[in-house]
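Researcher: Hi, I'm a grad student and pretty new to this. My advisor asked me to get structures for two proteins we've been looking at. I'm not sure of the right format, so I'll just paste the first sequence and hope you can take it from there.
Model: That works fine. Here's the first sequence with its structure tokens right after it:
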Amino acid sequence: MRVETNTATTSKCSSYRGVRRRSWGRYVSEIRLPGKKTRIWLGSFGTPEMAARAYDSAAFFLKGDSANLNFPELAGSLPRPESCSRKDIQVAAAKASKRACDDKKGSDESESEKRLQWWFEKEMDDIVEEVIKEKEAPYHLRSGKRFNKMRSLIKQL
């Protein structure tokens, strides 16, 4: 794990690769596709560790063993995307960040941990809605009970 050393830089950036801090305190993560100028948005997170794990998941999938990871000791346990699509990479990153949140949980659930859980559920809803908007799901999955069932299944991941 990396340690922040300069207080002047901690207000706007993080010491983790692929992670930066917004002015209002949230941490965001994105990764550049190898050999291209385009990026994949991985999400907005409550802690820098969650954002770093999301980055690690995407980096390990895209770059393999040559990836520079924030937590190299966790490389074997990172969730893998089902395909090379942006959405699958984002879902795997969200799972990795949730694991960071779950690993952090102790015997009692604090208020900040409840907020992190709320954020994860909201982020998963956003991903599902984006998939639906882009019509990657068949019509019967975009409406009614089946949509709600799909959303609840994704929340359980």
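Researcher: Oh nice, that was easy. Here's the second one.
Model: And its structure:
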Amino acid sequence: MKFRVFAIAVFAIGLCSFVMSQFLVGPQDVAERNPDFASTTTLVTDENYRAIVLASEKPVVLDFYGDYCPVCRQLEPQLLPVAEEHADAALFARVNVVESPELAEQYQVRAVPTLVMIHQGEVLFQSEGLSALSTLQTALQKATKPQG
């Protein structure tokens, strides 16, 4: 009985701290929390998707994220060096799933972060979570190596 009361109390404290953090601090925009990542990537929305992604001659890596997502925040500093390394060969962009729900639905994004690589409208790679980064690097090397 004592353990149950203790477990409920711990849960209640955790829930209260989460709710307070969301309402008092609120989620931070990428540009505020990670300006280097924001300046290296392009913000893609439902409105500018065609002009940026489909018009690109280079492969485009879309990072589907949410401002509320702690795993997305972990991925950003890890994705930054990859984006800088492949800046000449690929375009790196980010899509906020709350602000661009049509794109999230189009690519069947069920969890964030999700990385999707597209070239000329064709999905070359799609994976979710932190583990997506290592497989993305392999997919980038395949997609950007010179043909011949």
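Researcher: Is there anything I should tell my advisor about the second?
Model: You could mention this: The chain has a mean pLDDT of 87.
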